[in-house]
Design brief:
cytoplasm; alpha+beta; 4 strands; four-stranded antiparallel beta sheet
Length: 85
């Protein structure tokens, strides 16, 4: 398992449009991806789970990736979060 932490800078926090793009992109990966925010966690492949986190601007989320090709998936997610959240 590999992970990274990211502090949300988008004023809307972890919002629907990019969360949907992320879930669609992750549907093609064999990895398991979990987003944690405080005591809450969500399967990143499910837009409903991600939205239920209700992560707001200024909060830090931790993204955990495990499985085949986890390093490449983690790097893609790091770039995605930097560009969209």
């Amino acid at each position: 398992m590999v992970s990274f932490a990211y502090t949300l800078t988008d004023p809307m926090g972890l919002h629907m449009r990019p969360a949907g793009m992320m879930a669609k992109q992750l549907a093609e990966t064999p990895c398991s991806v979990v987003i944690r925010c405080g005591t809450r966690s969500a399967d990143a492949k499910s837009i409903l789970n991600v939205m239920a986190l209700a992560a707001k601007c200024g909060e830090t989320v931790t993204i955990e990736v495990s499985g085949e090709d986890e390093e490449a998936t983690l790097q893609e997610l790091r770039e995605f979060f930097t560009a969209n959240f």
